[in-house]
Design goal:
Largest sheet of chain A: 7 strands, parallel
Strand order of the largest sheet of chain A: 1-4-5-6-7-8-9
Helix content of chain A: 40-55%
Oligomer: homodimer
Order of helices and strands of chain A: HHHHEHEEHHEHHHEHEHEHEHEH
Number of strands of chain A: 9
Shape of chain A: globular
Strand content of chain A: 5-15%
Structural class of chain A: alpha/beta
Number of domains of chain A: 1
Number of helices of chain A: 15
Radius of gyration of chain A: 19 Å
CATH architecture of chain A: Alpha-Beta Barrel
Largest interface: A-B, 34 and 35 residues
């Protein structure tokens, strides 16, 4: 690990709490992944699910992008479906999650187990302990979980989908059963996230990848309460909490009150608009379009500068993409991005 | 055809132009489709592509939902990819469009033909002429086309996709070539839409199904100019123009100026918010979540009333779903919806 990040003590954590920083911290969603040759090398020897369950390897791929780019935060290499297996749900990855028996009946829902916090996916805690030993203290590790509504979508639909029409029709046709699923998921995610902090995670992120399927009224009725409950339950852990309502442009007025320290913003909503809605006490994380990394360097530069300008001069911005990095991205473009953000966001404190 | 719609002369057209109407007109995106047993009966004998190209059958399925529900408008049964075949693009449907040779090179783009307006998909004009003879005068036929950016997405990606990452990376990596594709598509769509009006279409709708992939700056750079050009070029036809920027919550401030008489709104943006952005001179069309048709009748009722309330008392609302109807929808729920909208939107003029 280079020493150049030493001294930039917890830039990321400071930004999460809207404290002024000498420059804008940066990390990238899905920074440990297929666009990196060193990741593909490991994946050529082990399948995705085994990789997430082998602490030494999961720790190694978590550290790869931090070493290569000197990112300001690491994020646990895992999958949002990982803690759901502990509830008794059988699945495989090909490449996205495929649920063997999609949830559709009261019996199936009744049978969903709520494992003890420490028992659920213990390999994740072990992974985090390894990472915690390896990471410099200036680079915090972000633990994460899927938001209950997003997990609900996969569990009821049976896998990924463009419209999640099975999951949504179930949600509307069976609101009572849906709430039971959502409540069980909420309880499990609270324990799962707690265990990550106990193992050494320094921040937590909740991914609500599919919440853009909901109008604000349905968000308030079904998805938002579970997010609030998770955040409230984790408040005592004293780590920053990031909530990412993907494609949530029309939900931000509600999201504002969920209690998160940081709100992740996809590329569709400009950061200045997000800041206006969220107010000065919530940090924003985002939001370069991941596909901007395929543009010419000149174009990419101006897009990076646009994101910094939209974020404004105030504290409380963590640079990131507006969604996960594409697997065909050139890693050199990521290095270029990181350098540009470092250079352009210097502040005199 | 029942005579009960006679006398409600062009409720739909009046609403498009923001003129007061006795009640809110209603039609439903994808109203001619798989949720109807009479449609499935025809489809059991003919594949999708042949159905779109056989005027008698395409006219018949266009008329089916108008007969069954007494909808206030008919919409041509066709596919947004239909006019693209005339440009020399080979495709099949399984069930969505699959492009044999996705556009990636300057040579391929150079070879895209611009057919004469009347020559392109002549079976569509014939379909419209049949429908025009069969429909009562109070029920206008809506012709349609895909917006150039949305067609670009399919042509470059090679088919449907959750992220259209090939199409978007091409857009950003090759903006010059992308603009050539978009301009050719624009020219072809203008001729195609003109031909529909000449054949008897009484309104036109432009579907920008994938424009929600773009941030507003990229929308302005790539998608919006072609929409404006189409609308401007069709102004002389003197039929209402509806533009549907699907998932375009963050684009409405730009969409406002595109020249459309009506803007379609998906279910994520409330109609009151859309009206506030679009102003009093643009009608809105939408926006019940299609999945609301799976809710209990009580819940569906209250959701319908919510849409009407959000649309407000002013003129210029066409009731519709916020996206195409799901194939598993119960037709009786559609009848219930149509009745409820009729009953609840009565006005004393």
């Amino acid at each position: 690990m280079s020493t150049s990040t030493i001294g930039a003590e917890s830039l990321f954590i400071s930004a999460c709490y809207c404290k002024p920083t000498q420059r804008t911290p940066i990390w990238i969603m899905r920074q440990a992944g297929r666009y990196l040759p060193e990741y593909r090398k490991i994946r050529s020897q082990v399948d995705f699910l085994s990789l997430t369950k082998t602490p030494e390897l999961a720790a190694e791929v978590t550290l790869q992008p931090v070493r290569r780019f000197e990112m300001d935060a690491a994020i646990l290499f895992s999958d949002i479906m990982t803690p759901v297996e502990g509830m008794g749900v059988e699945m495989e990855f090909s490449p996205g999650p495929v649920i063997k028996n999609p949830l559709r009946t009261a019996e199936q829902i009744e049978e969903l187990r709520i494992p003890e916090s420490g028992e659920n996916a213990p390999f994740v805690a072990e992974t985090i302990r390894i990472i915690d030993r390896e990471l410099p203290s200036s680079v915090p590790l972000i633990g994460f979980a899927g938001a209950p509504f997003t997990l609900f979508c996969y569990l009821v639909e049976g896998g990924g989908s463009k419209t999640f029409s099975q999951a949504k029709s179930f949600l509307f046709a069976e609101p009572r059963l849906s709430r039971i699923i959502l409540e069980k998921l909420t309880e499990v995610m609270i324990g799962y996230l707690e265990a990550q902090v106990q193992a050494g995670a320094k921040a937590l992120m909740i991914f609500d990848s599919w919440v853009g399927l909901l109008a604000d009224t349905d968000y308030k009725a079904f998805a938002y309460p579970s997010v609030c409950r998770i955040i409230e339950s984790l408040d005592h852990l004293d780590v920053p909490l990031i909530y990412f309502p993907n494609q949530g442009a029309t939900l931000l007025g509600t999201v504002k009150n969920c209690g998160a320290d940081v709100v992740g913003v996809d590329w569709r909503t400009s950061l200045s608009v997000a800041r206006n809605v969220l107010g000065p006490d919530i940090a924003v994380q985002g939001n370069l379009d991941p596909m901007a990394l395929f543009a010419s360097k000149e174009d990419l530069e101006s897009r990076i500068d646009d994101v910094l300008r939209e974020a404004g001069e105030e504290a409380g911005h963590i640079f990131n993409l507006g969604h996960g990095i594409d697997k065909n991205t050139d890693p050199d473009r990521v290095a270029f991005l990181v350098d540009r953000v470092r250079e352009r966001s210097q502040r005199n404190l």
